[in-house]
Amino acid sequence: MAIPVKLEVFEGPLDLLLHLIDKNKIDIYDIPIVEITAQYLEYIRQMEKDDMNVMSEFLVMAATLIDIKCRMLLPKEVNEEGEEEDPRAELVQKLLEYKMYKFMSFELRDRQVDAGRNLYRAQKLPEEVAAYRQPVNYEELIGDMTLNKLHELFKFIVRKQEDKIDPIRSRYGNIEKEEVDMEAKALYVEAYAREHRSFSFRRLLEKQSSKMELIVTFLIILELMKTGKISISQENIFDDIIITSQLANTQ
Predict the structure, then answer these.
(1) Range list for CATH 1.10.10.580 in the chain
(2) Which pLDDT tens digit goes with each residue over 102-119?
(3) Reported pTM
(4) String of DSSP letters for 4-50
(5) I want to staple 87 with a disulfide (CB 3.0 to 4.6 A). Which of 13, 71, 83, 96 is the partner?
């Protein structure tokens, strides 16, 4: 009967490699790839993982170790400077960086635990001390400032404000938007046309109280002409325009 063995859980492939190196007391700069690869593959065989993403990370590292093992069996490559390249160099660099980050995480975790043990007492001052306000020495605050100097300073500020005012635009009043009810004005013009079979266009416009009402009335007259409800006539060029209403017949 096989004895069940509970394996230690590692955060990733590099974590497992560091464990094997520490367990075998191996110099990280001189890793025996053959021995480490064998132990690494043996550990993977005993792993039971449902998450294929996690397993794939360990399998990629296993493939990397086998690749390094094969490269070490071949003649060593020489770089541009004539030095022999170590196939383990990149892996060693990654292990050193991971080891540094791991120790840093341990240090931060310890600091967090220590910080949680610190207790601070809330500030509590006597009412007399909390209500104390340092007195203001007005003579020291004013210094050599006199009423004449204050008056000159005030006039200087006023002049600066006056210089900012545009002498032309400042005379303009506020421009307000004039609202004209188009529907109500149309009803007014149509009622006027029903009451007058023939009337002067100029007299109709003179009854309007604003420029906007003139424009709206003119547009309504054009619309009534378009629909055939009124017709216009002018005997001479500068004569008054006479409007003849067809609406008067519908009364």
Answers:
(1) 182-250
(2) 888 888 888 888 877 777
(3) 0.36
(4) P--PPP-SSHHHHHHHHHHHTT--TTS--HHHHHHHHHHHHHH---S
(5) 71
